[in-house]
C-alpha cells in the first residue's frame, strides 16, 4: 500500500528553482533512501513533503490526501514525523518535557522511547540543551516517534556524530524497520543506508534520475550519481 507518492514536484526558493521533477514513493513498512550528491535537492524534497517549502507544481499524496498547499503542522498531524537536519529540540526543556509536549496516542510512548534509547532514558530530567550531539539526535528521533507517525523522515540523522553513537542510531533504525515502520532516510553513510533500505531514489540537479533496489545500484551507478 502506498503511503507517500510524490509526482513531478517542482520547488523554488524565491525565483530560484531547486526541484525540477522529483518522483518518489514510500509504501507501508518500507525503508526508502533518497540519495544524491550535495545540493541535488534531498532536503528540499523533504521540506516540500512536509510543507515547509511549498511545491509549485506536481503532486504529493500522503495517506490518500493531497498535501500540497497544506501548512506543515497540518501535514505533521496527518502522520509524518520529521527529524530535520540539525536536530532541533527545546534546549530549555528537559528530555522528558521535550517528549511529552510532542506525544500523541499510539504505541510510541515515553517508555517505548526510553527502551529504544536507554542512553536517553537515563537523562529524562536533564535539560535538552546540555545533551551531547548524539543524545540530542536520539531525542529528536524520540520526539518524532512519540507523535506516532505513519511515516518517519530522517534527514542526516547521523551526521557529525561519534562512531559509537552512530552505531546506536543505526541499530535503532534497523529495529524500527523490523517493527514495520515506514521510513524515508537521507544519510551520507552509504554502506549503512544501502544495508537498511528496501529501495533507493537518486536525485541529480533537482530531478529523480534513478530508482531501484540497493542491489541494482552498481558501483558504476554509484560512481555516476554519488561519486565525488
Ligand atoms: P545537502 O546534502 O548539501 O544538504 P541536498 O541534496 O539536501 O544537499 P538541498 O539542500 O535540497 O540539497 O538544495 C538543493 C538546491 O537548492 C541547491 O542548489 C541549494 O543551493 C538550493 N537551496 C537550498 N536551500 C535554499 C534556500 N534556503 N534558499 C535558496 N536556495 C536554497
UniProtKB/TrEMBL annotation:
<dbReference type="InterPro" id="IPR052156">
    <property type="entry name" value="BCAA_Transport_ATP-bd_LivF"/>
</dbReference>
<keyword id="KW-0813">Transport</keyword>
<protein>
    <submittedName>
        <fullName>ABC transporter ATP-binding protein</fullName>
    </submittedName>
</protein>
<keyword id="KW-0067">ATP-binding</keyword>
<feature type="domain" description="ABC transporter">
    <location>
        <begin position="4"/>
        <end position="228"/>
    </location>
</feature>
<keyword id="KW-0029">Amino-acid transport</keyword>
<keyword id="KW-0547">Nucleotide-binding</keyword>
<dbReference type="InterPro" id="IPR017871">
    <property type="entry name" value="ABC_transporter-like_CS"/>
</dbReference>
<dbReference type="InterPro" id="IPR003439">
    <property type="entry name" value="ABC_transporter-like_ATP-bd"/>
</dbReference>
<dbReference type="InterPro" id="IPR027417">
    <property type="entry name" value="P-loop_NTPase"/>
</dbReference>
<dbReference type="InterPro" id="IPR003593">
    <property type="entry name" value="AAA+_ATPase"/>
</dbReference>
<dbReference type="GO" id="GO:0005524">
    <property type="term" value="F:ATP binding"/>
</dbReference>
<dbReference type="Pfam" id="PF00005">
    <property type="entry name" value="ABC_tran"/>
</dbReference>
<comment type="similarity">
    <text>Belongs to the ABC transporter superfamily.</text>
</comment>
Amino acid at each position: 500500500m502506498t503511503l507517500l507518492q510524490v509526482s513531478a514536484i517542482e520547488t523554488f526558493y524565491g525565483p530560484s528553482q531547486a526541484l525540477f521533477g522529483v518522483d518518489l514513493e514510500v509504501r507501508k513498512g518500507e525503508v526508502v533512501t533518497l540519495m544524491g550528491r550535495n545540493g541535488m535537492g534531498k532536503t528540499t524534497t523533504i521540506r516540500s513533503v512536509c510543507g515547509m517549502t511549498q511545491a509549485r507544481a506536481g503532486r504529493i499524496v500522503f495517506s490518500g490526501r493531497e498535501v500540497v498547499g497544506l501548512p506543515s503542522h497540518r501535514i505533521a498531524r496527518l502522520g509524518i514525523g520529521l527529524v530535520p537536519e540539525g536536530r532541533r529540540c527545546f534546549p530549555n526543556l528537559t528530555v522528558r518535557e521535550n517528549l511529552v509536549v510532542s506525544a500523541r496516542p499510539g504505541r510510541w510512548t515515553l517508555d517505548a522511547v526510553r527502551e529504544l534509547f536507554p542512553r536517553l532514558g537515563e537523562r529524562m530530567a536533564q535539560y535538552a540543551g546540555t545533551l551531547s550531539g548524539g543524545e540530542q539526535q536520539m531525542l529528536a528521533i524520540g520526539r518524532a516517534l512519540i507523535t506516532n507517525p505513519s511515516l518517519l523522515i530522517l534527514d542526516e540523522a547521523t551526521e557529525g556524530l561519534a562512531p559509537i553513537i552512530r552505531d546506536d542510531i543505526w541499530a535503532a533504525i534497523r529495529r524500527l524497520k523490523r517493527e514495520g515502520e515506514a521510513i524515508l532516510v537521507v544519510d551520507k553513510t552509504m554502506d549503512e543506508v544501502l544495508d537498511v533500505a528496501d529501495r533507493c531514489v537518486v536525485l541529480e540537479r533537482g530531478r529523480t534520475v534513478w530508482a531501484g533496489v540497493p542491489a541494482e545500484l552498481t558501483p558504476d551507478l554509484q560512481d555516476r550519481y554519488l561519486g565525488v
